[in-house]
Amino acid sequence: MNNKKKNEGQTDFSYYGLYLLDYLRTNKFEQAGDTAFIRERADHAAETYEKARLEGYPTDGAQELAMDTLLRGLRYSRYAILREVVENEFADEVPEEKQEAFIHKLLPLVGNVFSVYDLSDDNFALSSDYDLLYTELTGATVLYIGEYGV
């Protein structure tokens, strides 16, 4: 994709807006195309940073608070979790050069597995639910490969 076209209309995003846009795109969040969502989050993160600095936080501390505000509820994407499962559990079955296409093919088919878990919980990976989801996705992937191959 042409970089100019890819970044069209985004040149007025702030640092936080550009960071969030890249994060959303990289992790395939559905909000990646929602300019209003990105601007609102970015503005809130900038306000958090400014307020923290005025309260005496050091630059690094204020930045950490701003990034937490920016990414709150967006720590875990369906795509990133499924990618982790495929990379960790199926490296022998799914060659690295085919993983991206495989994940895109499989993702819509495992949507119901994700539907019972709250991925917006920023501590989700620390919960037993994360282990259950990981196990369910592993099982679903085994079944898919057994039925359809890679």
Automatic annotation (TrEMBL):
Cross-referenced Pfam families: DUF1896
InterPro entries, per the entry: DUF1896, PG0816-like_sf
SUPFAM superfamilies per UniProt: PG0816-like (SSF140753)
Stated name of the protein: DUF1896 domain-containing protein
Organism: Xylanibacter caecicola
Lineage of origin: Bacteria, Pseudomonadati, Bacteroidota, Bacteroidia, Bacteroidales
